[in-house]
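Q: My labmate handed me this sequence with no annotations at all. I'd like to see what the chain might look like in three dimensions before we decide whether it's worth expressing. Could you predict it?
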Amino acid sequence: MLLNQFHNKKVSEVFLLKLLYIFSSPLAQVFLLFNIKANTITTLSNISAMISYISIFYNFYFFFFFWSFSLILDICDGIVARATKTSSAAGSFYDHFSDFLKIMGLFLFIGIYYDTKIIWILVSLNLLVFSTVDYLDKVIHQKNALIKYNKINSVSSNNSFNLTIKIIIKINTFLNNLIIYRTFFIMHGQYNLILLPLAYNIYTAQYTLVLSFLICFWTITLLLIQIKELNNIMINNNIPWK
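A: Here is what I predict for the chain of 242 residues:
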């Protein structure tokens, strides 16, 4: 089975994502061959991430392998879910919540491993901004879904409403591509990759945590702008926030 049709829609736009699919697609074929479910693959990804946490205390290269393997498995579960038409709200929640916990867990283990004041400050800041990004992104998805739902179920055709929908889509597209780090790391899962140097030594950990904080902080700014625009659309068209 050719799996290209089941890849993330952004794979053609993001070079880094293309590289990851070189490893993920053959592995996804194996999972399909043995009829391994998407949720099982997500669980394997979580296990690989937990092994990587332990590896922090022993060997950087083990950490590098298991953390990278966790990301590859995380891509595989999406391919398998789409290929077998087993995508579900519960499966999506499990996948995304697992991704969130893996990042948060890594930050905490890095803090425990280095256990210095500066590292704990940077870890705490990253825990704060990353969780904020995750929350705001969910808010945007909910608001976009409400706007789309109200557009589809509108009894009469409202030209003004349709125009504002087109405008907000254009604004969102522009903001999503305004900064390359957001396209690469935050929105498509490759944020995990910039965290690889965390376990190399304390200096790379500090630089990586600073970079991570800046990426997330800038992403928060973009997300807040989008939320403001979405709020205006909802207010102008009497769409209640549920």
